[in-house]
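Lecture notes, unit on binding sites. The following record was shown on slide 14. It pairs a sequence with zinc ion.
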Amino acid sequence: MLRCKYIYSGVSMNKVPVAISNRHIFLSEEDTIRLFNTLNVPRQKTLGQEKYYAYEPTVDVIGQNNYVIKNVRVIGPPRKKTQVELLFGDCVKLDIKPYIRQTEDIKGSPGCVLKSKYGQAQLNTGVIVPARHMHANYEDAEKMGLIQNEFVKIRAAGDRALIFDNVLVRIDKYASLAFHIDIEEANAANVKPGQMLQILK
Ligand SMILES: [Zn+2]
């Protein structure tokens, strides 16, 4: 008897849950002290990944044109270098060149001014629009045939269906499987946090 088999030629059925980020800032120790007068900044709440936390006080981001984006969340602990992760639309409003890069790849990026109740920090560099990427641990990666630092496509279905291209695969021992995009990209495809999207290879 002839049986009809489901064939997916070249397209994997692997799925990944979406995690959506908004604009946020990582501060160096020096800039933490400049803006908050202390390294013991009060914490807001625990994020999904416990090694990060949000500070209670926020800072304002000021662009070349003096446009201000108020109350931007700061994530601790301090990093080696201050990094301001903005949305593409923020950069347009602030008259800052949108510099799309993976986290910590800030070489050559533009700067801005950060301001709080206590003080301000003038940054010459460190403003990026985070580039889309996905995380997987070694087990997930093997199951799904993913390779460290390769680029995949991820498809969102629905009314605003679209294929996210240039998704960098980041494999790490302790990573939770997740596709990281920002709120503008999520809105463009009308996807919600935790929604499962299909990896195309
Ligand atoms: Zn990520």
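Take-home: The first strand starts at residue 15 and ends at 21.
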